[in-house]
DNA sequence: CATGTTCGTATCATTTTGATAGTGACTTGA
DNA sequence: TCAAGTCACTATCAAAATGATACGAACATG
């Protein structure tokens, strides 16, 4: 797909760095604590060529950071940056959509690790508290 | 990418139907009221071959619905279903991420169409009201 | 010193994408 | 009435991305 990184639409811009399924699944796994090449490879059953490329892109884009965890042999792991961590709510919300509309069979649930309660994610406007989607939204394009 | 529609992860399931940039941009445009082939084509500068395929997939997956708006000549438009409309919060939240982390230059803003106030989207837990990402999340896998 | 672990790269077939041109069924304007 | 325009596509084909598999490099372990 063509490069949308200079589009005026923030959705399009986001999609240029994380607009494919593998990247999002890598971020999902990283949010659950996976950091190493082989962890991702086994968890996702992804071809190593693709994984290499995706990890490199996510690192370039600033969602992951390469960190050396062993000097000999030289070994790097990939940890989430602040930008990467802040993408988690998008994934969780996408998961909530999937649960609602693609929810046949047994599905994983998101649980608050401390209270043990199931999380029920919704997007709201931080100012008014209104659920996103319940009121019409207009897009204001600059100049 | 391989088919993840039977994975137990709801994020993976969502990604099988909307896990690519074009589909999400089509949904974005559809949420803004676009319905016709040529509207999408011009808005997105997408090749007609791809657009045909994406619209067909989104229709099969139940996010869009084909509706005849002219008998002669036979013409169909694509309107969002409930599932398609409910995907908007995911996009808006992704846009908020893009604004924060890819926000150089002039960017479009989301405005409440009635009040005119800018929307500041956040994902929260509907039960506790806590922002998603501020507390650790555990994934509970079934059986 | 043989085997295993980890993080990859090389190679190559298959699949997907994307650009461009064309088509069918009309409508509209001169 | 006839040329031009609209709209929703399909056909064709080159280019790019994906994915499967094999292999490599740099060690650690037994």
From TrEMBL, chains A, B:
Keywords: DNA-binding, Transcription, Transcription regulation. The keyword DNA-binding applies. Residues 9-106 form the HTH hxlR-type domain. Pfam families: HxlR (PF01638). PROSITE patterns: HTH_HXLR. SUPFAM superfamilies: Winged helix' DNA-binding domain. GO terms for molecular function: DNA binding. PANTHER family: TRANSCRIPTIONAL REGULATOR, MARR FAMILY, TRANSCRIPTIONAL REGULATORY PROTEIN. This is HxlR family transcriptional regulator. It comes from Mesorhizobium tianshanense.
């Amino acid at each position: 797909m063509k490069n949308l990184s200079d589009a005026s639409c923030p959705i399009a811009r986001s999609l240029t760095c994380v607009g494919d399924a593998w990247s999002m699944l890598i971020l999902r796994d990283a949010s659950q604590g996976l950091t190493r090449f082989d962890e991702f490879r086994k968890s996702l059953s992804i071809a190593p060529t693709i994984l290499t490329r995706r990890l490199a892109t996510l690192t370039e884009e600033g969602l992951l950071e390469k960190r050396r965890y062993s000097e000999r042999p030289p070994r790097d792991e990939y940890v989430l940056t602040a930008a990467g961590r802040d993408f988690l709510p998008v994934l969780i919300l996408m998961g909530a959509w999937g649960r609602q509309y693609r929810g046949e069979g047994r599905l994983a649930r998101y649980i608050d690790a401390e209270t043990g309660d199931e999380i029920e994610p919704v997007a709201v406007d931080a100012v008014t508290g209104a659920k996103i989607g319940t009121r019409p939204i207009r897009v204001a394009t600059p100049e």
